[in-house]
């Protein structure tokens, strides 16, 4: 059996593995394992984590563009911690919007296990894929022009559909975030979608890991005054927390926990 097959069998059986664990099992160095996993991740066979690898959700194998697959593997512990914290503010029966971010994709994976009777609106094909088996909630997909870089539907048709819905909570992430200014994106197409959703929301919650803070991207999307709550991870600087609190924005810092296997609802 090849090393790749051994790794794949191990990860598919257990859901996750560390570099050290695989290196000991195969009697090779951790650097060798890292190189093997890098190549496997490029083929969308597995997903990299901070300390190792985890199983690729079955419905997504071979479907994701390389750029999106890479983003799904970045800062996975932080994203999952933020998603777990976001779960605590969702209530059964609510209508929520999830944007096409990989952090919201993590939240989508938890929702079916924790809540019932939700109506989830999204323009993300990835999130729709992750929620497809949740029969206790209603999934509303926003259609339009498909953006292969983000796996989202955008454009005038999507913007028109967004204007018809009112939501209890809109969950957004961002490419970059200045606590004194607002959120920034590299894609101009996402601007009108996010602005439209926020205009129709009772509450807007930004999910952003600490690496997003203190940076700008191509276009400013949400003003900081449009955000009600920011959920981030324990790596956040106290300076940024203070800046947000001074603007009457609720800040929730999610503790990092040991990474767990993929939730059943995303398989």
What do you see in this structure?
The chain has 267 residues and is of the alpha/beta class. The protein has 2 domains: 3-56, Winged helix-like DNA-binding domain superfamily/Winged helix DNA-binding domain (Arc Repressor Mutant, subunit A), CATH 1.10.10.10; 76-257, Rossmann fold, CATH 3.40.50. It has helices spanning 3-14, 19-26, 30-42, 66-73, 76-87, 102-114, 125-131, 156-162, 189-199, 238-245; strands at residues 16-18, 46-48, 52-55, 95-98, 119-122, 138-141, 145-147, 152-154, 167-172, 176-178, 182-185, 201-207, 219-223, 229-233, 250-254. A hairpin with a 3-residue loop joins strand 10 and strand 11 (182-185). Helix 5 (76-87) packs across helix 6 (102-114) and helix 6 (102-114) packs parallel to helix 7 (125-131). It is globular and about 55 Å long.
> Which word captures the global form?
globular
**Biggest sheet, open or closed, and with what strands and sense?**
7 strands, parallel
- By helix and strand content, what is the structural category? alpha/beta
Series of H and E elements = HEHHEEHHEHEHEEEHEEEHEEEHE
Helix content: 25-40%
Query: What's the gyration radius in Å?
Result: 19 Å
Work out the strand percent. Answer: 15-25%
Can you give the mean pLDDT?
Answer: 86
Distance between the termini: 26 Å
Total of DSSP H or I helical runs spanning 4+ residues? 10
- Predict the CATH topology of the largest domain: Rossmann fold
Please give the number of β-strands. Answer: 15
Q: Main sheet: which strands, in order across? A: 6-5-4-9-12-14-15
User: Uncertain regions: pLDDT < 50 for 5+ in a row?
Assistant: 258-267
Report the top-level CATH class of the largest domain: Alpha Beta
| Number of separate structural domains | 2
CATH architecture of the largest domain: 3-Layer(aba) Sandwich
């Amino acid at each position: 059996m090849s090393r790749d097959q051994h790794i794949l069998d191990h990860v598919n059986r257990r859901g996750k593995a560390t570099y050290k664990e695989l290196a000991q099992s195969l009697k090779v160095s951790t650097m060798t394992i890292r190189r093997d996993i890098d190549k496997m991740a490029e083929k969308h066979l597995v997903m990299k984590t901070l300390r190792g690898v985890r199983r690729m959700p079955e419905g997504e194998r071979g479907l994701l563009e390389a750029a999106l697959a890479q983003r799904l593997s970045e800062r996975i512990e932080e994203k999952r911690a933020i998603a777990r914290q976001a779960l605590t503010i969702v209530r059964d029966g609510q209508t929520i919007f999830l944007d096409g971010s990989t952090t919201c994709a993590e939240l989508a994976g938890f929702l079916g296990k924790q809540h019932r009777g939700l109506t989830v609106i999204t323009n993300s094909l990835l999130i729709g894929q992750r929620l497809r088996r949740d029969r206790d909630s209603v999934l509303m997909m926003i259609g339009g022009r498909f953006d292969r870089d983000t796996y989202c539907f955008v454009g005038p048709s999507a913007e028109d559909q967004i204007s018809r819905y009112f939501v209890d909570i809109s969950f957004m992430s961002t490419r970059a975030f200045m606590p004194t200014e607002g959120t920034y994106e590299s894609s101009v197409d996402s601007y009108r979608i996010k602005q439209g959703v926020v205009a129709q929301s009772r509450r807007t919650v930004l999910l952003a890991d600490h690496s997003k803070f203190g940076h700008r991207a191509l276009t400013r999307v949400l003003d900081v005054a449009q955000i009600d709550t920011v959920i981030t991870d324990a790596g956040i600087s106290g300076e940024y927390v203070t800046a947000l609190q001074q603007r009457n924005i609720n800040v929730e810092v999610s503790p990092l926990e040991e990474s767990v296997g993929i939730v059943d609802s995303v398989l």
